[in-house]
Design a protein that fits this description.
Chain B: InterPro entries: 4_helix_cytokine-like_core (IPR009079), PRF/CT (IPR010681). The complex is a heterodimer. Chain A is about 15% helix and about 35% strand. Chain A is an alpha+beta fold. The longest helix of chain A has 25 residues, at about 20-40. Chain B is built from 7 helices and 1 strand. Chain B is mainly α. Classes of the chains: A alpha+beta, B mainly alpha. The interface of A and B includes residues 184 and 249 of A. Strand 15 of chain A pairs antiparallel with strand 1 of chain B.
């Protein structure tokens, strides 16, 4: 086939002018020679162990030839030379670099190498975890100490007699994931990680059951809010971690911990379902720190704690209220509550509407009268609590003191 | 579930009032046949709780029993290959998609069959065990496991599914599959306990799925009320 190619190319060549053809060939040859010369010396870096003794020969030069060695362009003192050989004793990491050997008088480059000093790998650290049960699991690894030279990692997963493929992740590096083909397996998984570099190799093995490595990610979007008019409550809500694929069939249970910033001991609550909880025993006015963790209802271990959120329960002092106006509408009251600077006047309107839905619940007139009376009493008590700057009552209509929309 | 606090949305009010109206008219209806659905929901929860209790009990029992068998069976990283003879014990292992797609009937039947057979094997074990303490524990566990089988049967009946034709006794005459030597006998026991443990984990997940699928009592009531 090659002959055919040449034959097909033959008609092309005569078309080129002869001198141009020659020049092209010469240039091409020169490039090839230079390339070969440069890369024959340092196409492969030279790897040596920390603490080893290294002897470098100047290519094909005789032992008694006059040569000069340089490292990264700097001349090396003759005391390191034994004839034309360069002797490096007990090398350390700082001696990595490009070593070149030049013939004494002509300063021709005779030999060049890139020396990299490193260590063989120590036993790697391997961790496997299923944060997306029952989809699969991932394994991640790292070296406990750096080797300072390139390493390659090879991972193998065996399930009983079957070899499984662990697909490497692009990000983060040093991680791979496996999909479960079968669930509820009694046979253990055996994961072996081998790390190899130019100076040696090492490996580690993990053997585990499907259930033992289940550990969800921490809950997400933890939010803690004060509860209006309740100085000892905090409302906490969160979401299932997004990596957990099927919370319907594999529900999570949660562990909540909270403490005021000023104390060191945590209080704990375990919740078997739901993604919210109201703390009812908070100390009034104290800032709290709150965290949540998750676990599969039946198997595995608890997740790490979520990001901590801070919250302070509602208090009556104005400076603790939120700065936005809050307008709460219930089925039978309309109440405007405004934040205000001390000294400003705030108005509250309490009105009682006979809503149609009340008629269904309380079909008797007497019940509705009683309800209205209770409500008015409550309004009056609220007024008393908020002090003299507030006016309340059934027939008062309202002008919002701060010019805010109702 | 209605949260009757200070604020009620319009939808919740609508449902609440409808229910009140329905309840008021209830005595006029013929007797509702909804006790079975109500029963099923509760039974599933009870069965789930029972599997969790058994799983907890098994942990202690297995620890004691494996110590009785001695090394290497009581070593935590003991990972023997699964021999062909171990295939007799019903395995919980199942293809992921297959497990997801199981019908309620198939799911319950698989559990019922598995535990019936596991119970038989455990009873055989009970007769052979040496120490009194182990016999006592095994007997207690067998009783609880019997309760689980009955509970699953109860759920199936209340949902209208036929009970699978379970083996009344061991599937083969006792002694037909007896281990040829002491070590293999211990291996059999090891795999029996392992499969039992895995089945209990699987059942927890099975019953979680079933809990979601059996309709809640309130909705059932409303549908029945409309039926008149």
């Amino acid at each position: 086939m090659n002959v055919a190619v040449f034959r097909s190319m033959a008609p092309v060549f005569p078309k080129m002018a002869s001198p141009v053809r020659s020049a092209c060939c010469v240039v091409l040859a020169a490039v090839v020679v230079v390339y070969a010369q440069r890369h024959s010396q340092d196409s492969h870096p030279q790897y040596e162990r920390v603490g080893a003794d290294v002897t470098m020969k100047c290519g094909s030069m005789d032992w008694d030839a006059a040569v000069t060695w340089t490292v990264n362009g700097t001349d090396i003192d003759e005391s390191h030379l034994n004839g034309s050989y360069l002797i490096l004793k007990n090398v350390n990491l700082s001696q990595s670099g490009q070593y070149s050997c030049y013939e004494g008088s002509s300063w021709h480059l005779k030999y060049q190498t890139y020396l990299r000093v490193g260590t063989p790998p120590k036993e790697p650290v391997l961790m496997c975890r299923s944060n997306n049960y029952p989809k699969g699991f991932y394994c991640s690894w790292h070296l406990p100490t750096p080797t300072y030279i390139p390493n390659t990692f090879n991972i193998s997963v065996i399930h009983g007699t079957k070899d499984m493929v662990c697909e490497k992740d692009a990000m983060p590096k040093n991680r791979c994931h496996i999909r479960y083909l079968q669930l509820f397996s009694t046979v253990k998984y055996k994961v072996t990680l081998t790390v190899t570099n130019a100076l040696g190799k090492n490996f580690t093995t993990l053997t585990f059951d499907e259930f033992a490595i289940v550990k969800p990610d921490p809950p997400e979007s933890v939010v803690a809010k004060p509860v209006p008019n309740n100085p000892r409550r905090l409302e906490v809500s969160w979401q299932n971690p997004s990596s957990w694929p099927d919370p319907e069939s594999f529900p999570l249970k949660f562990f909540l911990r909270y403490r005021p910033l000023i104390l060191d001991t945590w209080q704990h609550v375990e919740l078997s379902d739901g993604t919210s909880h109201t703390i009812t025993d908070a100390y009034a006015g104290k800032e709290y720190i709150i965290q949540v963790a998750a676990k599969d209802n039946d198997i595995g271990t608890w997740s790490d704690w979520s990001v901590a959120v801070h919250a302070t329960p509602w208090t009556e002092e104005p400076k603790h209220l939120t700065t936005e106006a809050q307008i709460t509408e219930t089925t039978h009251t309309r109440t405007h509550t405004h934040t205000h600077a001390p000294g400003e006047t705030v108005f509250i309107k309490c009105s009682f509407h006979d809503d149609w839905r009340l008629w269904v619940l309380f079909p008797f007139h007497l019940e509705r009268v009683v309800l209205a009376a209770c409500f008015r009493a409550w309004c009056w008590l609220s007024w008393r609590r908020h002090g003299n700057s507030i006016e309340g009552g059934h027939t008062h209509s309202l002008e919002p003191a701060l010019g805010l929309k109702p | 579930m209605l949260n009757v606090t200070g604020e009620l949305s319009g939808d919740s009010w609508g449902i609440f009032t409808f229910l009140c109206a329905a309840l008021c008219n209830l005595p006029a209806l013929p007797a509702l046949n909804c006790s079975e659905e109500l029963g099923a929901g509760q039974s599933i929860q009870q069965t789930y709780d029972l599997t969790r209790y058994l799983e907890h009990q098994l942990r202690t029992l297995a620890g004691t029993y494996l110590n009785y068998l001695g090394p290497p069976f009581n070593e935590p990283d003991f990972n023997p290959p699964r021999l062909a003879r171990a295939e007799r014990v019903p395995s919980a292992t199942v293809d992921l998609d297959l497990w997801r797609g199981l019908t309620d009937n198939a799911r319950l039947a698989a559990n019922y069959r598995a535990y019936s057979r596991l119970l038989c094997y455990l009873r055989v074990l009970d007769g052979q065990v040496g120490t009194a303490e182990l016999r006592h524990r095994l007997a207690h566990f067998c009783a609880s496991l019997q309760g689980l089988v009955l509970s699953i049967g109860g759920v199936m009946s209340s949902l209208g599914y036929p009970l699978p034709a379970g083996p009344a006794g061991p599937p083969a005459p006792p002694g037909a599959h007896a281990a040829p030597n002491d070590f293999l006998k211990k291996m059999d026991d090891f795999w029996l306990l392992k499969e039992l443990q895995t089945w209990l984990w699987r059942s927890a997940k099975d019953f979680n799925r079933l809990k979601k699928k059996v309709p809640p009592a309130v909705v059932t009531l409303r549908l029945e009320a409309r039926g008149f």
